[in-house]
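Sat 14:20. Reprocessing the chain from the morning session after the first attempt stalled halfway. Input below, unchanged.
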Amino acid sequence: MSRYLRQILHSLRFKTKITLGVILMLVVCGLSIGLILSSMSSKALLEEGKERGMALTSGLSFRLTEPLLAMDFLQMKNLIDNVHGQYGVVIYIFLVDASNNILAHTFSGGFPIDLLHVNLDGQKPQPLLLATERGRIYDFNARIALGEKNLGTVRLGLSRSNLDAQIHQQQIISLIATLGVVGLGVVLALWFSHTVTFRLKRLRESAEEIVKGNLNVQAGFSLEKNCWEIMECGKEECPAYGDSRRRCWYLPGTLCPACRDKEYPLKIESCRHCPVFRYNSGDELQDLAEAFDVMAVTVKNHIEELTEREKTIGKQQRLLKTIMDVTPDFITLQDKDLIYTFAGKAFCEYFNLHEDDVIGRTDFDLFPKQQADLAFQEDKRILGTGTPLVKEITFKRPDGQKWFHVVKVPVYDQDNSIIGLLLTARDISTLKKFQEQLIQAQKMEGLGRLAGGVAHEINTPLGVILGYSQLMMDDITDEALLENLKIIEKQTKVCRKIVADLLGFSRRSHSVREALNVNESLREVIALVEHVFSLNRIMIIHELEETITLLTGDKEQLKQVWLNLLNNAADAIGQDGLIFVQSRRNIQRQGIEVSIADTGQGVEKEHLSKLFDPFFTTKQVGKGTGLGLSISFGIIKDLGGTISALSPTPAEYLPRDFTRSEQYGPGAVFIVELPTPKGEST
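Finished this time. Tokens:
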């Protein structure tokens, strides 16, 4: 009895707190909802009044179209007066034509001219609220038109006072209703507080102990009789025997015949008919307290299991993080709101970001708006359709253009719902370079076949023309005619030279593969052109490394490459310039590098990628066929090497003591890389 009284006192003290809290919540929520509903209804009344005014104005403008066309002023006046007299909230109506001249109005004491200068634009949102001597008025504007032609404008003034009165009345009603509902809620709260049990405090104390880490708590009260006492079973081997903290219907493996081999909650249905359950079961809060005790014991067991699992998961997470950081591919993960939840190390380093700068942000926070907007549209489409996206993108970087193969795939949860987006990107710049080289080779092969066919067809007629012109030169004594024949002979030889280049490009003659010395071939070609170049004050400086090894190839073809490159350099210089020829070992590539640099006019940046295309030339018409570099490209390719060009000439490809002056241009350098035979080292 004393315990029961103590519990009653305890519940009354806690009940007071609940009562005050519920009352305060009801008052705040009730008043808030009342104010919101009042505001919404007020707004609805205003909107209804505006819509009614706009409807009146639009309907009147439609009905005034015919009398306005007929200039029937009497009918205009009747229509306006009819609407004005029918609706008491309408303060005024007037009609003006396209030139803003007043045609009809409802003002009795003279027309206020100031109204003509406000609310002129019919395209602006309607209506316009005006402050007048008769109070606030909504002014509506409706254009009267026939097709695209503007006939005039009708203006209608609607009183705001009636609307304000309705709003005020509605607010009073809402306040009274809200106070009534709150009062009823207070009464219900008082009643509800009396129904709350007195065991919540014990549950709270048990919860506090669990928060502190103490799972050996008991929220439920001790029973007068336990299950083994009620049943008088004497089964000490039963899990429930001697366990006063947990009720037998929560324990698995009990030895009662009706619930054997069953676990909670499956066994609870059979336990409801048990005398122990009927004797010891209580109300909902008592069940909660007892379940709380079972939960504490169960949680303790689960925590021990979770601790072991956490160690395993942590180890797996560290392993996965290591794999993600080591991979060179870009890997990112975004949630369904496109907020980054993970960013790989390669991704962060490429964009010069830290992982903390990426996590929790979107593309709009990290990238330019145009790029972020494009990614946003793509990502939204993937999340909406579930269709992966595979594409190639490019970035311009200070170290050159970069290509990436990007794959975006949606991420699904166990319910097959899209919860995020996974991005992987791989740098394919090297692959793109190889593709360009393959396309270049295929293009050269096709052009070579075309060039061979054309050259073969026109070579014979050119020989006939040249032969007959030379025969005629032997028989003709007329100086003028003889001079013309010499021109024919000269131009025919030019054509034969072009044909020879075409044939050389399409099918070079059988090459002789033998050991050759790159430096020796360079010296022979330099000696051949040095005198001719000196006539134009072009000086050739060479710096050849003598330790480079021999190559296997056609010496004459290689000399043709050097001759083409030197002639191109001289043509680019014109007069007064320097050509620097250098050969050296390329330790990184295990080969030989030959560079021919000049101080000429240089090559435009957009032309660098086209220099080795057949028939492409930057020289004037008649100065070149555009095949020299293409033929050189093919020869170097047959040797297993590469040829490339840079402009302007970097300082490393010029003599060490070279000083650039105003007479020199930016220049260009052609770099030939040749591999050494297998088994040999440079």
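The radius of gyration is 49 Å.
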